[in-house]
Amino acid sequence: MPEPVDAATARTQLAQLTVTEEVTPPGYSRTKFPHWATQHGNCDTREVVLQRDGQDVVQDAACRAAGTWYWPYDGASWTDATDLDIDHVVPLKEAWRSGADSWTTAQRRGFANDLTRPQLIAVTDNVNQAKGDKDPGKWMVPLASYRCTYSRAWVQVKHFYNLSIDSAEKAALENALNNC
């Protein structure tokens, strides 16, 4: 994952985000966020993230990855890429609730495949599924030593995409950033 902004920048960006009550506008579907777009050759976004986030990763002609991955959310290591998900740090449904419902399909595709900002990270599937579409007011990474990085990434992504936050989300992020 690209290194997120520093804590001071994240605190400034957090203060600039619009705080609103969280509601889910009708019409959400993951298919409205075309993800795992082809990046090059046979490699889609998922395979590029697996390559980027792993150690000693090799890819076959179909771009399937083999290697070792360390998951910073809980400190686990994995060697089977099928046990990994690519986490959208800011989940797609959370983005929908925060303003992406008004975006074009092209904007949602860009968000779902963003390799420039700290939006995508290879993680173990069971913890990613436990996170689901929750924001930091409802879920925080289990590994305390990674909470600062996760919060900085969350704020940077929300700020870049001009997405709103709710008050519980903001409080959780302020707490994490104040402990950086």
Notes on the protein architecture:
This protein is an alpha+beta fold. 37% of the residues lie in helices and 17% in strands. The chain is built from seven helices and seven strands, in the order αββαββββααβααα. It has helices at 7-16, 45-53, 92-97, 105-112, 125-131, 147-160, 167-178; strands at residues 38-40, 43-44, 55-59, 65-71, 76-78, 84-88, 120-124. The strands form three sheets. It has a three-stranded antiparallel β-sheet with strand order 3-4-5, covered by helices on one side. The protein has a two-stranded antiparallel ribbon with strand order 1-2. Strands 6-7 form a two-stranded antiparallel sheet. A hairpin with a 4-residue loop joins β4 (65-71) and β5 (76-78). The longest helix has 14 residues, at 147-160. The protein is globular. The mean pLDDT is 94.
Rounded to an integer in angstroms, the radius of gyration calculated over CA atoms is: 16 Å
Number of strands: 7
Question: What is the helix/strand order?
Answer: HEEHEEEEHHEHHH
For the termini, the CA-CA separation is 18 Å
Q: How would you name the oligomeric state of the polypeptide chains in this document?
A: single chain
Low-confidence stretches: none
Mean pLDDT: 94
Main pleated sheet: 3 strands, antiparallel
Give the overall shape, derived from the CA principal axes: globular
> Structural class, from helix and strand content?
alpha+beta
The amount of beta strand, in percent, is 15-25%
- The count of helical stretches stands at 7
The strands making up the biggest β-sheet line up spatially as 3-4-5
- State the share of residues found in helices, binned by percent: 25-40%
